[in-house]
Prior knowledge:
Chloramphenicol Acetyltransferase, single chain, alpha+beta, 4 domains, Non-ribosomal Peptide Synthetase Peptidyl Carrier Protein, Chain A, 19 strands, GMP Synthetase, Chain A, domain 3, four-stranded mixed β-sheet
Amino acid sequence: MYRTGDLVRRLPNGRYEFVGRIDTQVKINGVRVELGEVETTLASHPSVVEAAVRVDDGSNGAKRLAAWVVVSHPGTAASLTGFLRDRLPPALVPALITEIDAIPRTSSGKTDRARLPEPVWDAPADTVPKTPLTAEQRIVIACWQQVLGVEQCGLDDDFFRLGGHSLLLTQLAALLCQMSGLDVGLRELHYNATVAQQAELLRQAGELRPITPAPGGSRLTVSHAQERFWILDRVNPHSHEYLLPILIRLPADTTADIIDQALAVVVARHEILRTRFVMDSQGLTAVVEPAKSIAVKLRSHDGGPGHASAMITQMLENGFDLSAAPPWRAAVVRDGADEPLLVLVCHHIIGDGWSSQIIESEIRERVAELRAGLDPQRTVTPLGYFDASAWLRSQLSEELLTKQLGYWHSTLADLPVLELPGIGRLAPQRDIAGDAVTVELPASSVKALVALARQAGTTPYVALLTLWTIALARAAGQWDFGVASPHVGRSRPELHAIVGPFADTLVLRPRLDPDLCFTDALARVERTCREAFVHSDAPFESVVDAVVPVRDLSRTSLFQNLFTFTSDDQFGHVPGSREVELLAQSWKVSRTDLELALWMYRDGHIEGLLGYASALYREDTAEDLAHRLRELADSFAADPELAIGSPGIDGS
């Protein structure tokens, strides 16, 4: 038998498609790159006749990808970077694409990469602008310096080549809007990655139309997320399934009276904390009650750690009457520690993970002011949640919704159900009873995985999502399934300080293969996330209706697992270690079959909760998954080139 070295892809009809050579696999920044895959993607562009890719040393000595293309329309190369970025992970997008007349060939007809022209990494002197920078270019450079932490950048520098990634691009979009006052869309920035291109976007952009408050007395527009939570509550009235616990340790000398006053100020500031929901002849609407009519009922409980756990469990056992304000409750628990523990339980119809951090931060600030004998700040947010909700609805045109639903229908069609061995029998209607076990990943392994993610141009979120997906796939013996994860949904800086449910659920389908190494799996998950984020305007309920119009009430639609991650870069409330343990003891609900929530701490280690539907899985199943996660983190941190399907690397 002779190994040809050809790399092929098996098509659904059983035929094989040539995509490259295994001897053209290279590594850049620790990421394995198949040159043939990049060449094939380039050649799929309608104006590219043929393409070649190789690795060269850039002007700074670092290894970089360069591409050469023969095109039917001169000037096509300028648009190819955006074309590739929509189809390939960042590490596979060449830093330079050059048009040439013909690709050099060997005597056998194969690409002769050694004879390709030398890439011109630095622009010739006569192409350097001789005129001063425009105002738009100065704004873009200043924003890049702040977001990327670079001292200098040129007009033709690429955002992603300088270390940018999808999360930083979101921050860049918000900062550009804030500094320029112009409407710059995330999608446009994604396809225009150089300083010059983004400055041109600013030049062409219309003035950013401010999000204006609704006229007093007008009907309040609820969001798509609130409609979803309302419907779920109508199906199961006063359900405790969608509750948001916030646990805040306060200074030892903080009295119940100070906490009561601080809460009152925060409630007065955010209208959503004073809201009830009613259905009338026009549909669902919200009613905001005056601040003075909301009495803060702060319960107080003293006892040991066991008492605290029982108290939190009790607070999480009951839902809310959403037609009555407020849909939250609060208690101060003294569990033997010097610092009192403030426990807030909100319904998700009034908040999300981002909101929990806002609430925590503002309560701490007001408590500090009151402890110092100062009058707490009593400002009201310029915009309320329902002003933002009306604006968000106005941005979702029928054309945009149709286009995005088309993407989701294609991506999630025939999505297999994820089931781990030993799953119990499904009830006709899903049982929300659940439990949780704790998860901990050591700082050494986490830091190595985060460094690997940075090298690949992606985020810690993507690295940990990849780890979770691999752990599930290995436990289930199944490599194609959906992973649900929340998307923040706050595209404008004006929305960042507003409490309310902006986040929506995205279902990601990475389609990993057990033969991939972790580095390649990371790149595939990054590409999946990037595509999903670009199509995140479509509400989750609309996606479900488009993909699975007939609902299966025995399980959550489209996904059987949920992943969330919070750190300094991923905005949200990060509970302390003691609070994580309390939540593990108190959490008795499952929003889907399996749910992983991870929090990263300043020293680099990660703690979390792995929740499970107790009607379907036993505790030992969850413990096994938690063990797999840690073992896989250690294995891939030590050797990211391990195949993700390798036997024995997860301790099983």
